């Protein structure tokens, strides 16, 4: 009886030593699964394709953005098609494995895209990937 | 002399760094990474562009021309097909002649999504040799 009376004084204690462990685990998860955002890009709706495949090796990727009005952006700068050639020519010389991701809105006129493809051919950046989404209802 | 006696009695307790704030530091770092990085979402359809000026000689019977008009009508050889039927037709053609090269000519006025739909069908038909041809003349 006396022992129980003494124990009522101590309050329940949740050990907080492990919160930092949990927090560091979360950090490591984010560190391996995300990349720093390098550019804003443009607000576009990508077209859907069933044959979409994941692109690994993100390091060699350069993005070219085309919105539905035909405006073209590289690295958040509005550019004309001939400037795309010079930018990509430089990049492909630095990195022969360069893959150019064509992020074009689904309603963009194909004429603009084909001009950019010609510019990429001139720049000798031949590895191109058309960015697409999985169709609705289909996962990765 | 007075100090010395104080120091000698204090050698028993060891210096203690409070580690209660490690959790705070860890969560701050998480929030930093959460706001500055993005999940990589690169996915798309790959293609390798032909080099400019490199006209590979292909026998004309090994070329299958797929034309897409600006209204989105697809012509394979001389057959008009709907986009969902493209895949089966190409699978048939590939079964007849596995060395076939598919020349994809899309009109400049067509929507980019139309081209991606057709390209998607070709990829699903497992066509290995797809060549994107620029179409110069107007009036698709």
Automatic annotation (TrEMBL), chain A:
Residue ranges crossing the lipid bilayer per the database entry: none
Keywords: Cell membrane, Membrane, Protein transport, Transmembrane, Transmembrane helix, Transport
Keyword Ligase: no
Gene Ontology annotations for the cellular component aspect, listed alphabetically: plasma membrane
Gene3D superfamilies: 3.30.420.270
GO MF term set: transmembrane transporter activity
UniProt cross-references to InterPro entries, sorted A to Z: ExbD
Subcellular localization: Cell membrane
Keyword Zinc-finger: no
Main subcellular location of this protein, as a coarse class: membrane
Membrane topology: Single-pass membrane protein; Single-pass type II membrane protein
Highest taxon above the source species: Bacteria
GO biological process, one term: protein transport
Family indicated by similarity: Belongs to the ExbD/TolR family.
PANTHER family in UniProt: BIOPOLYMER TRANSPORT PROTEIN EXBD-RELATED, EXBD MEMBRANE COMPONENT OF PMF-DRIVEN MACROMOLECULE IMPORT SYSTEM
Protein name according to UniProt: Biopolymer transporter ExbD
Source species of the chain: candidate division WOR-3 bacterium JGI_Cruoil_03_51_56
UniProtKB/TrEMBL annotation, chain B:
Gene Ontology process terms (BP): protein transport
Protein's organism: candidate division WOR-3 bacterium JGI_Cruoil_03_51_56
Entry annotated with the keyword Mitochondrion: no
Upper classification of the organism: Bacteria, Bacteria division WOR-3
Gene3D superfamilies xrefs: 3.30.420.270
Family: Belongs to the ExbD/TolR family.
GO MF annotations, alphabetized: transmembrane transporter activity
Name by which UniProt lists this protein: Biopolymer transporter ExbD
UniProt keyword terms in alphabetical order: Cell membrane, Membrane, Protein transport, Transmembrane, Transmembrane helix, Transport
Coiled-coil stretches noted in the UniProt entry, renumbered to this chain: none
Statement: the UniProt record of this protein carries the keyword S-adenosyl-L-methionine: no
């Amino acid at each position: 009886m006396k022992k129980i009376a003494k124990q009522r004084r101590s309050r329940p204690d949740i050990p907080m030593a492990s919160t930092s462990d949990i927090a560091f685990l979360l950090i490591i998860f984010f560190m391996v699964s995300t990349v720093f955002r390098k550019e804003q890009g443009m607000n576009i709706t990508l077209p859907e394709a069933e044959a979409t495949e994941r692109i690994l090796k993100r390091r060699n990727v350069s993005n070219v953005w085309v919105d539905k009005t035909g405006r073209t952006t590289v690295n958040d700068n509005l550019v004309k098609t001939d400037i795309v050639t010079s930018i990509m020519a430089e990049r492909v010389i630095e990195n022969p494995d360069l893959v150019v991701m064509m992020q074009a809105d689904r309603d963009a006129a194909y004429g603009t895209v084909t001009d950019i493809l010609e510019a990429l051919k001139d720049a000798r950046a031949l590895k191109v990937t058309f960015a697409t989404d999985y169709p609705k209802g289909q996962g990765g | 002399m007075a100090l010395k006696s104080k120091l000698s009695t204090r050698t028993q307790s060891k210096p203690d760094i409070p580690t209660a704030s490690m959790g705070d530091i860890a969560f701050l770092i998480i929030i930093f990474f959460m706001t500055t990085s993005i999940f990589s979402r690169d996915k798309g359809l790959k293609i390798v562009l032909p080099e400019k000026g490199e006209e590979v000689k292909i026998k004309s019977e090994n070329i299958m021309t797929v034309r897409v008009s600006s209204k989105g009508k697809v012509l394979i050889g001389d057959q008009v097909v709907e986009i969902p039927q493209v895949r089966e037709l190409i699978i048939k053609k590939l079964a007849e002649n596995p060395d076939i090269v598919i020349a994809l000519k899309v009109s400049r006025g067509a929507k980019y999504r139309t081209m991606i739909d057709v390209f998607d069908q070709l990829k699903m038909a497992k066509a290995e040799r797809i060549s994107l041809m620029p179409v110069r003349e107007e009036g698709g």
